[in-house]
Amino acid sequence: MVNVRTVGVIGAGVMGRGVTVALRQAGYRVILVDRTEEILERSRAQLRDDVRLYAMLAPKSSVTFEELAAETVFTTELEALAEADLVVENATERWSVKQPIYERLAKICRPDVVVAVNTSAISITRLGALTGRPENVIGMHFMNPVPLKPTVEVIRAFHTSASTVDTAREFLSSMGKKSIVVNDSPGFVTNRVMMLTVNEAAYLVHEGVASAADTDRLFVECFGHTMGPLETADLIGLDTVLLSIEVLYDEFKDSKYRPCPLLTKLVDAGLHGRKSGQGFFSYQTANRG
Ligand code: NAI
């Protein structure tokens, strides 16, 4: 594998923060980029809470906030990624957000740098084409919460080279993660199924077939899932879920991916799930439902 010491992380939201913690746990230096100082300040504060939580849940691999911050550069300058040996992009799930980033990365990063796209559904092939070196671009679909999830869905795009696949797998292995490689297609394997399930569960609540709590309980108590689809949606972020299902709807032109109006309504109302304190369930009080 090419020598990776410094990793650029774009986006300091739910996933960018998770990736940052996992990278620091593995000893990498991180350059974390987001749009504004204010967002970076909020992320820094959130990271302080995140590492405390991970230290309780997985004490063996924990890092303190001081250890994390000592080798993490927080910046609004994408140009800082000129120093990165590998980049993981975790910006908002919107083509209009990701597109300019990839166009700029091609001019900023060294030509040998592997760029990993962490997206829920957007085409890796199309993003790779923006860089002029699509052979170095690969999908790295981390699961949330990143430090606690053992496996990553790796997506081979049309032009991704075999050596980029090898680098990605070795890099993930160095983070203690297994990888499962699939070919590029909207939503890949996981989210083509998962987003449809979440959307359909939202329709069940929307149509009054069952409450959100009972819908989830059926998956947990009958199927043995650790979490129902709606609580999973809250964990992902309902804004990200809606953007992802919209990508699937646009790509497949298939009405089965039509976003549930209840999902749209919750997002419009600012109820984005766990990160906003309320989604299908409330995270401010013990009272769920
Ligand atoms: P988020 O909304 O929590 O965070 C996105 C971050 O990107 C925000 O902090 C935003 O300010 C930043 N951003 C927007 N434009 C930017 C730019 N030009 N430069 C730098 N930063 C920019 O979203 P989340 O959940 O972290 O998702 C990020 C990506 O990861 C999305 O593509 C999503 O589909 C994917 N993903 C999300 C998962 C989840 O469970 N939330 C799981 C796996 C992938």
From TrEMBL:
Protein name per its UniProtKB record: 3-hydroxyacyl-CoA dehydrogenase family protein
Family: Belongs to the 3-hydroxyacyl-CoA dehydrogenase family.
Domain 3-hydroxyacyl-CoA dehydrogenase C-terminal, residue spans: 187-283
Pfam families named among the record's database cross-references: 3HCDH, 3HCDH_N
Keyword Nucleus: no
Pathway assignment: Lipid metabolism; butanoate metabolism
Species of the source: Streptomyces glomeratus
Species lineage: Bacteria, Bacillati, Actinomycetota, Actinomycetes, Kitasatosporales
The 3-hydroxyacyl-CoA dehydrogenase NAD binding domain, residue ranges: 6-184
Alphabetical UniProt keywords: Oxidoreductase
Domain of life: Bacteria
